[in-house]
Design brief:
Elements (H helix, E strand, L loop, with lengths): L4 E3 L2 E3 L4 E4 L5 E5 L4 E3 L2 E3 L13 E3 L5 E4 L5 E3 L2 E3 L13 E3 L5 E5 L12 E3 L3
Antiparallel strand pairs: 1-2, 3-4, 4-7, 5-6, 7-8, 8-11, 9-10, 11-12, 12-13
Length: 124
């Protein structure tokens, strides 16, 4: 895309790659650079361009489904680890339920009885 655009709940930076279902609903975006989505900074791009960067996933409704975090961030009170090869090891990023509630993330530090690098999972 040649200019910033609204996509689901996000404002996607110019130069990003957008994937849609056949009915036009969102699937994912590979952003040209890290950008805010619902107040969280999600990874984007790489030195090889957006096609080689992390994906930001969306539900067909346009709600955020998954985001690889750009740096450790506190998400709804939970200390979540950054995504990517030097963060959560390119596993799953921070995942969200369709209502916006955090579903899971890898912990950036000990949290309650859970140890750093453990996957935190929250019931709906």
């Amino acid at each position: 895309m040649s200019q910033d655009a609204a996509f689901g709940e996000a404002r996607i930076p110019a130069g990003s790659i957008i994937a849609l279902h056949p009915d036009g609903t969102p699937v994912f975006v590979q952003m040209s650079h890290a950008a805010q989505v619902l107040g969280y900074t999600c990874l984007g791009g790489s030195w090889l361009g957006p096609a080689e960067g992390a994906m930001v996933g969306f539900y067909p409704s346009g709600k955020l489904k998954e985001c690889y975090l750009a740096g450790d961030q506190t998400v709804q009170g939970v200390p979540c680890m950054n995504g990517g090869i030097f963060g959560d090891g390119m596993g799953r990023g921070a995942e969200f339920y369709e209502d916006g509630k955090l579903k899971s993330c890898k912990l950036s530090r000990d949290f309650g009885a859970l140890k750093r690098r453990t996957r935190f999972v929250q019931a709906p």
